[in-house]
Amino acid sequence: MCGIFAVFNYPDDIHAFRRRALLLSKQLRHRGPDWSGCKISGNNILCHERLAIVGVDSGAQPLTNEDESIILAVNGEIYNHRALRKQLRSGVTFKTQSDCEVILHLYSEIGKDVVNHLDGMYSFVLLDTTRNRFIAARDPIGITTLYQGWSSSSPNTVYFASELKALNEVCDKIISFPPGHIYDSLTGETTRYYKPPWWDGEIIPKNPINYTVLRESLEKAVRKRLMSDVPYGVLLSGGLDSSLIASIATREAAKLAATQNGYQEDSDERHIGNSGVNGLHSFSIGLPGSPDLVAARSVAEFLNTIHHEYTFTIQEGLDAVHDIIHHLETYDVTTIRASTPMYLLSRKIKAMGVKMVLSGEGSDEILGGYLYFHAAPSAADFHKETVTRVKKLHTSDCLRANKSTMAWGLEARVPFLDGTFLNVAMAIDPEEKVFREGRMEKYILRKAFDVSTTGGVRYLPDSILWRQKEQFSDGVGYGWIDSLKDASEQHVTDEQFANAAERWPKDTPTTKEAYWYREQFESWFPQEACIDSVERWIPRRDWGCPEDPSGRAQRVHNSAYDNVANV
């Protein structure tokens, strides 16, 4: 991933603005420390901060076509770029080995319909100088981040950036650009291009579970995400999701390393970096003695990964919170809780020279894995909530995974949010997903990788495969959340909290912890415009769930599963 900053239809001297644009783009350099680029055409400017993962030597951006009539800046990865190259008309000249360059040439042939052909995670801005047209698009789920802004002093000017901090000085209206949408300056409209069959939550699917299809679609999702020319690894919390991804990645990396050149030259999966040659690296973090560290250690031993285990102190975590809020650009309680260990771990990983990791985000939303789903009144309600949560991933877990890692120039890839896997999993009858006697959360995912359905192949130890859900902020050590609550009590007085609604009538904090985060967010982003891009993550109160989003706060946490059918 990278950082992009673009301004279209700037009202004054664009060349005089170049210096200011470079300074604003520099605020994104943590996302792309490898190279910076800038292109001006007419009264438009595109800036790029590059993190080189694929086509390291030749993929500097912004990219241009042969006559430089099309200019492109991309943040992300296009996993099917080689297949798309073969679909282009003959005679197309590629300047780089970048997976993103294919967007340029595909656009020149089919226009903005290019977004319906991309398989990947991406945000991009494209300028077509021949038509004075610019388009901007974001991947279907919002794995990558993108913001759009305007200034009342020049209402016809449009700004785009990968993070809020590049816009808040020049815009007085800022939104999080919606995932699965594309903006076209020719119409001035932003339209949804992503229209999967599961989008309407009122339509309840009826497909029976097919464990083989579910398992193989996830394996393919992991395989395509090993596309890399640089060292990579896996984030391993010891929970079900990250452990499955690590298990699959270990198998797939070994397959790739078994041949001298990896996959065939024309395959999108041919790049393997150097991580599969001597074993896959895995990374975990937690407070000393935390549940996640113990579980991750057992998984790493089982998979024989090269495991790196780190601990942090409560004070180190508390010291990082202010900077984390600056990087996350949110005041959401659960996002900040979970981001702190991920942020600290990402710094350690990048220091080792690793630039890409696989992570397990998305599974809980797709399969209803959060413990509050136990309170769903019916299978239909269960399904509707999964649809809602997947649609909102860009405000929570995707935002956390992207910004916590990219704060240090580390790219996180999320196989559970693969388009094909999503379509398979979201089409399953929710009666197969709901909790009932003998079935714990994410039962069908666990069963798909259990020896009873894999032909005897053991992907994980049973103690991990059937381990109860721990949200990351809980699993790193229960003392972490308790310490955040204690710290907020010290920072926020009873009088301040009593007047919270007066200070913030919109989205008023309901706990001292939320107040403390909101205050720190405001110190970084004082403009009223910045609040519109934030959305809080709260379990369903109308299901009788507590407001505290911690899994530990849910009634079923650590309840016995004496009758779970795990064979």
Automatic annotation (TrEMBL):
Residues the UniProt record annotates as site (Important for beta-aspartyl-AMP intermediate formation): E361
Key word Amino-acid biosynthesis present: yes
PROSITE patterns per UniProt: GATASE_TYPE_2
Pathway: Amino-acid biosynthesis; L-asparagine biosynthesis; L-asparagine from L-aspartate (L-Gln route): step 1/1
Gene Ontology MF term list: asparagine synthase (glutamine-hydrolyzing) activity; ATP binding
GO BP: asparagine biosynthetic process
Highest taxon above the source species: Eukaryota
Catalytic reaction(s) noted: L-aspartate + L-glutamine + ATP + H2O = L-asparagine + L-glutamate + AMP + diphosphate + H(+)
EC number(s) recorded for this UniProt protein: 6.3.5.4
Annotated binding of L-glutamine, by residue: D99
Keywords: Amino-acid biosynthesis, Asparagine biosynthesis, ATP-binding, Glutamine amidotransferase, Ligase, Nucleotide-binding
Catalytic site: C2
Entry binding sites for ATP: L235, I285, S359, G360
Residue ranges occupied by any Glutamine amidotransferase type-2 domain in the UniProt entry: 2-188
Recorded GO CC terms: cytosol
Annotated Pfam families: Asn_synthase (PF00733), GATase_7 (PF13537)
Name listed for the protein in its UniProt record: asparagine synthase (glutamine-hydrolyzing)
Lineage, opening ranks: Eukaryota, Fungi, Fungi incertae sedis, Mucoromycota, Glomeromycotina
